[in-house]
């Protein structure tokens, strides 16, 4: 492609596509450096207690086993900033699955066999891994994840509920969920004297470099972290994980390069998970459907080694006009692995509960669910009172309704029947904040007319290389084919993680600024360029992170059609449609992929994904993809994503909002609302598996295979 007409806003193909489809893209565990060894962790087999002995003799006697690291012989390091990285430092076992040893072998097979041969003796303590409403240890924290206040209150919610013509008081449950990226967490580490090089599967190399330099007492410039290709993360690779620390320890201990690739079954215990959330929603509205009071209370769990509070009540502070509004977070410390980020943390489970409750309120009032949301559109952000930089949720709802064929929908549940199948449709809104962080970037004009842009972005499958090239091309006034891009190397400079839907906005701002400065330098340069070219640098500290007077959010509307089999309880999603307002769409091809991917992930949350904690043993009962079911092609019918034309100059130089997470936020609620419309039964706990659905149908008077129209008020 040539010409500026194929720069920003064009559906440019991903630059790394050929490498990925031909198998030449190298991931963290695929760096075959000479002398490389492999290591495998030994996970703790108790839920709480301490290690009192490790017998390594049988493992060390096996062919190909080089070493066994324990808390007694592992290389010493400083206390990490993040307690989840404090592995092999002492005998304490904070939860099942915590690494208590590491076996290093010549091959992955030798390391695996050696790990199975290690015998660990424990002194076990009593433990508690069960989250329950009213748990005696529940507390209100100072803040929730992201620094949000744990509690906010405006107006008199008691009076607002009492004066309401219609009220609902409902509870919802979202189970623990797991990220499960296609590429497991892996690191290849190599020491060259006091210099450390690490190839790791991470969403951001700057954070990894900072932590490794601190833990191993190295100057930052002696640590180089690369993440050339990353096979997904969904938040679980947003901070350094134990694999990188274990690999560095093993490489130092053996004097050889070492690769640690965590087995799939280890991931739920050591790389974070979406914490379960218990929701209570109280909504009141007048006869016209205008909300008089909204209360959203959330209880979640955290580990005993680090507090992480899923900010699931935060979306209620953004969505709807409510003269009385109260949100509360509570957290229970348990003997569980530390929860962490998973795609749209807070917004995803929070909006499932809020948008399901809004549907219940619509049924109670006899108001169309799309219309109810429009009637409660706020003029300013309800919690802060700040004006929105842009908010086109109403346009998303109306355009989605038009495209989906919502007009003429019979609101009565159970009216669309064919044989044993009941069909229904549902809607839900979505929101996600616009986040931007400081970043550094350089741009260089080369002899011959080409350009080189360097920014420490990470491509986790979203097309970061491609979009950064498009941003540079537009700023430089050239075609993307004339711009080479280097990313994912901590030596390039500091950059934020690919997370929070903030990656492109943050990296792109720095790239845009560096290219603008380069144009200014070139304007004052006469004659041919020197051999090394002419360069310019940018650092957006102080601008990208400046406080904004505006509330900045992306919005969207999800529509779903489901088919429920009254004989088997099986739910099929036959259609999903999303319409989003996410600022300027920088690359329609990669954007559509992100929207559809998020919607599909939301379908999994609604129907199949469940990571319960076993109360008897303290571990996750479904730790692998054989038991933790994610959607496959057969589960996904028609999925369509569109967007409204939204220009917002109050965001960043490109005018774009993040799109990696908005696609999942309302999907599960739309599916759940469609199932209610199909059956007349309100399911308030995810996922909607056949056993749960069939039981609900039976409990509400649907013998297997029978159909009938249900009153929306009776079961709404």
Radius of gyration: 26 Å
Number of helices: 17
Work out the number of β strands. Answer: 26
Structural class label: alpha+beta
Spatial arrangement of strands, main beta sheet: 3-5-1-14-11-12-13
Question: What's the story with the biggest beta sheet?
Answer: 7 strands, mixed
End-to-end gap = 55 Å
Task: Estimate what percentage of residues fall within beta strands.
Answer: 15-25%
Query: What overall geometry do the principal axes of the alpha carbons give?
Result: globular
Mean pLDDT: 96
Low-pLDDT segments, ≥5 res: 708-716
Helical residue percent band? 10-25%
Structure, explained:
- The chain is of the alpha+beta class and 716 residues long.
- The chain contains 17 helices and 26 strands.
- The protein has a seven-stranded mixed β-sheet with strand order 3-5-1-14-11-12-13, with helices on both faces. It has a five-stranded mixed β-sheet with strand order 9-17-16-15-10. Strands 18-19-24-25-26 form a five-stranded mixed β-sheet, sandwiched between helices.
- Strand 25, helix 13 and strand 26 (638-643) form a beta-alpha-beta unit.
- Helix 13 (588-607) packs across helix 15 (667-679).
- The longest helix is centred in the last third of the chain and has 21 residues, at 503-523.
- The model is unreliable at 708-716 (pLDDT under 50).
Give the helices and strands, then pairings.
Elements: H1 17-22, E1 37-43, E2 49-55, H2 57-60, E3 65-69, E4 92-93, E5 99-105, H3 108-117, E6 119-124, E7 143-144, E8 148-149, E9 151-154, H4 157-162, E10 166-174, E11 186-192, E12 195-200, H5 205-215, E13 223-226, H6 242-254, E14 258-261, H7 267-270, E15 277-285, E16 291-303, E17 325-334, H8 347-365, H9 369-375, H10 393-404, E18 416-418, E19 421-433, E20 440-445, E21 451-455, H11 464-476, E22 483-486, H12 503-523, E23 534-539, E24 553-565, E25 571-581, H13 588-607, E26 638-643, H14 662-665, H15 667-679, H16 690-699, H17 712-715
Helix pairs in contact: 8-15, 11-12, 13-15
